[in-house]
Here is the input.
Amino acid sequence: MLHANLDISIPEISSKCLGNILRVDVGPLGGKPLEVAAVVDNSSTLLTPSLASQCGFSMKIDRLGNAKIYASLQNCFAKSADGEVFTTELLLRLPGNRMSEDKLFKVAETCRYPDWASREVVCDRSFMEVSVKMAAAGDYALPRLPLQEEKTKSVPQRDSEKGSPIATLVFFNPEEEEEKTMTVKEAQRNGYGIANSAGRLLLKSPKASSETFTQNVAGVPMTVLKTSVLFEKRWRATRIDAAAACPRMEGSVTFTPKTITWFLPRNIHPLVSGRFDLQEVHMGVDGERLDPAEMAARRYSLTANAAHIIVQIPVGAAGGYFKSHILDGLYLTTYSIEPMLELLWTENGSQEDTRYKVLFPITTPLLTGPLQVTDHTVPKERKFKVLFGPFVSDVSLINITFPPEVLSVSDCNARGYNVLEHMSPNSRSKVFTLEVPFTDGVVKQKKETGTTIYSLHFTFGLEVLPEHAPFSHTAYLEAKLIDKLADLSSRPSVSGDCDDQYFYILVKYGAQGSDFETVVGKRTLTPDLARQYRVIENGTHSGFAVPFSSPDVAFEAIQGSSIKGRLDISLRNPKNNEYIKQFSLACNFLSTLTECHPNGTMTALAVKLESVPSLNPAQLTLRDTACGPSSSDDRFAYFVFTGSSCGTIRRFLPNMMVYENEISLPDELQSKLDEPDYELKVSCFYRINRTQAVTFHPRLSRSEPFAENAKGKLQVALRLALDASYSMFHSDEDYPIATFLHQPLYFEVELKSANPRVSLELESCWATLGEDGMSKPRWNFITNGCVNPTDLYQVTFHPVGVDTRVQYPSHFKRFEVLMFAFDKDQENLGHQLLVHCDVVICDARNQLDGACKKDCSNQDNLIKGQRRAVADNLGFRRVSSGLIVIINE
Here is the structure.
């Protein structure tokens, strides 16, 4: 419950019961001190540092002015009737300018803690506490704290205080020859808190008391307090041991620039007399336990070995905070965090257990911050743009000096400099930005040939709060603005080309030289990457070759037996990260994606496409989701399977048997991707004997998917293109090729010759059902070098131009055919065919009348079947396609 006077500036106050301690959070305080008093029966006692450590209180305030107050449930002022429920009341005071303006807040919290261990040890930042179970409740009584007796009468009597027995404390220190004995009142006057209630003996000690000593435990220095309390009654005396051991900062923590490592002994010898069983280990921050999921989110690590329990915390992790410091004018930071470890062990041979809790404040050594001025100036915008930072949020910008004047932040904004403070989303860091127009008087400028150079000299004046520690940082910026005519000649350029394996890139520097970064794909061209791509440079140009399989290449599509890859090249200004030039080159690369082996084994290569960036190829499967890839990496997956496994489907065509499967993601994985579905069809065609039964292991079809060679020294090839661009072609392994009725097919006939004076001419082209070009039936679609005029769906010829593959267009002929749309007797065609062409090779120096001098203008003669004459000594060459299978839609 919280009671407070109403005020819009009151801090947020909350409280939490955290096992055997209570935590009260107050803040932010706005730079004001916080006074804490304990309340009993409407009377308050101010908690001075000495009384706080004696009674079980501590407090810390972070750089943002947020306070955390820790109180032992068994503090001197707690009310408890049964030893399980404890109530603590605190009075918080924030001073105002006058006493009448002080703000008072009363906090009352009741915590229940029934699961007391036989012994409970708490190590707080300012005190140690040990609570030991006694034989019977109220068996022995102890006097009140002398300090309380002198200053207040409000502390309630503990159990029975009539006729308090004589009790002494014995302190053990291995460095001293004799034990030190004190009465209870002497111990209390020396700062110890000792009390008992509800069957427990409670002892609190400041960590800096003279009776403590340092002991190395498993290489970790520990502050140890070793005592025994002697109670005497008329007929007997009782001795109860009460010891505490807490780790020290020095020697138990190691630091790297990125990680804090804390070592706590697994076997704390001063508290363990023999073998023990460690039952529980918990980690937390600021006294509050964290579950494994929260620890993983914060990247905390908790491990154990035979000697230590080890905590690792990244510097800057959630739960801690950075603080700014100025040393000799240099800006530095520290990172602070207060992790907690809580252990529970049972000593063998007894039923007694110990709960050990340590709150361990850690602060790193001074860290050099990555403080820098970043120039984001774009000269074309004619203003300087500066980013300064990052800083911890306790840094404030006071002024900026532009020689010869000093301007406050408000003065800068009034002059149009646009000074802004940007806080990170978690409010842990900030940066400052500054914009200054080139036209302002603080900007200097000078002229060079074709260029104007603008310069700005300034000093940031800052301070660290709440100490108001001043520091400064000076910067000099320069920007060049190139005249328009000079700019055109100075720009760099990028060009490129491909072969069957590589992208070839040429970068021209321009008049301004190579003062830029080259980005290949998404990676900067570092010296190591330059060696990998064999960069050659001559001062004005650089060139390099990127393999098609490089991770810098993006795969755009799969087309037949080829993969379309794209390489992006960017030229970037290293000063402001602005892109000067961006260039993309896309090419098709032949790749064996599917292989069909004679024994029925099939292999398939699946490729990660740019359109599915989140795809993990290792998760792809065949139709049977139990069949994953034989091998994979982050870009490819390779499958090996047979026609009788992995969900492969078998279909029959005339003289052909087709095995089909598909590669995709399982449905439950595909549904998690906010991307297009990934599916790759895999098909293998096997020829079967018409007169024999199909065997289990069909023989691989070897129907000719390649063109026959022409007779003589010159060779002619017939190829089937993937589309009308004639840039990619089916390979031998693709045949037989499946197509649909009325689907266009794109054929190319090429003369293999380096002689520019010869040319290739088509005499006739037709289709048959079998490999024999002279077999019947026969469907003609090119006759006498021209389109067959009797065909309802006539052939379309495509022009041939010079490109990277075609050097002499006269060596090529290209035409488009609609499948089975070229004859009226389609019903007799069947479901497969081969295409044949007779060609003639002509010499430009000796043009022949007839085939070498084609004229398709007189269609009447062609209709009558009159054939053009061809020189007998030249003759025809015949080329044929591979098998084409027709699929009815």
About this structure: Residues 126-246 form one domain. The mean pLDDT is 83. The radius of gyration is 44 Å. The longest strand covers residues 451-464.
